[in-house]
Amino acid sequence: MAHEHHEHHGPEWNKAAEAALTRAGEQWTAMRASIFDVLASFDKPASAYDIADAVSKAQGRRVAPNSVYRILDLFVNANLARRVESANAYLANSHPDCIHDCIFLVCDQCGQTTHIDNDTITGSVRSAASGAGFTPVRPVIEVRGRCADCAASVQD
Ligand SMILES: [Zn+2]
Ligand SMILES: [Zn+2]
Predict the structure, then answer these.
(1) Is the residue at 2 inside a domain?
(2) Same domain, 85 and 110
(3) Which-ligand-closest: CA of 101?
(4) DSSP assigned state of 4
(5) Closest-approaching ligand to the CA atom of 112
(6) Over the stretch 76-120, which tens digit does the pLDDT of each residue have?
(7) Which of 21, 42, 50, 98 is the most buried (most CB within 10 A)?
(8) Ligand 1 centroid vs 20 CA: distance in angstroms?
(9) Residues at Cβ < 5 Å from ligand 2 ion
(10) For residue 5, is it within any domain?
(11) Is residue 97 part of a domain?
């Protein structure tokens, strides 16, 4: 079923992100590194504005959302970040060295977003699209609902 790969955390995660960006032929600049740090610190999808605010605070100087947006775009193309469409925001990719069509689980109550990888499901979506004469680039599968924490607090 799900393809085996380990998810990254901490400094090892930054190393994996740096390696993925370098493989994509891009430089791991100080600015890109600090944007990745900030992005990885969010457990909910963050907008370019949220990230620009946090990076500005960390660097003690104003960083424009526009330049953050360009870097996020680059991260998405190099598999370092994923866009969560229904939240109109970004998450750091926990497996930058492994390409999947991640399936996002978005909590409507607290906004926490986790994901699962199931290449069988996303493969079916891709082949259904191909069967309809459509060339799929990026299937977007997002499940809205309630995370385990919020579901548990409802029962209290
Ligand atoms: Zn994934
Ligand atoms: Zn929740």
Answers:
(1) no
(2) no
(3) 1
(4) P
(5) 2
(6) 999 999 999 999 999 999 999 888 999 999 999 999 999 999 999
(7) 21
(8) 15
(9) 107, 109-110, 112, 147, 150
(10) no
(11) no
